[in-house]
Amino acid sequence: MDFMAEMAELALASRLRRLSDTYWQAVTATYRQSGVDFDVRWATIFVLIARQGPVAITEIAGRLGITHPAVIQVTNELEKRNLIVSTKSEQDGRKRFLSLSEAGQDMLPKLQPLWDAFITVNQQMIAQQTHNLLLSLQEMEAQLAERNFFDRVQDQLTTKKSE
């Protein structure tokens, strides 16, 4: 048996990371096989910009639940690849609005069939599961949004000390 699976709850984060790595490797291979020069790390931000239209970095961070520096790192890469363009806000010069460039718009029809295939395969695998992974992830994320993991662990350690 897989040792990480044997460790059960202790290895939850490691198993999620391993699952994520498995997906990222497959998606990267699919992009390469299809001749699309696109990095898996860009996908969620690229899709949000494509769907949302001009969007600010702070809004991207908030909508995706990721850090502002992480958004800046990815958007800088997208700008270097000429897939997005940045315009400054007329009301606040510190604020940038991002939208797809012409090259980004041209890439969408190449990416969409791949994304459609990713969705279909995920739907097929989820349909074969006893427990829907997406719903389980949503429940876990909601619990952690209510009270983060660190605080929960600290409470557990304090309770154990007082026993």
Automatic annotation (TrEMBL):
Pfam family for this entry, one: MarR_2
Highest taxon of the lineage: Bacteria
Domain HTH marR-type: start-end pairs: 9-146
SMART domains xrefs: HTH_MARR (SM00347)
Keywords linked to the UniProt accession: DNA-binding, Transcription, Transcription regulation
Official protein name in the record: MarR family transcriptional regulator
Species of the source: Spirosoma liriopis
Record lineage: Bacteria, Pseudomonadati, Bacteroidota, Cytophagia, Cytophagales
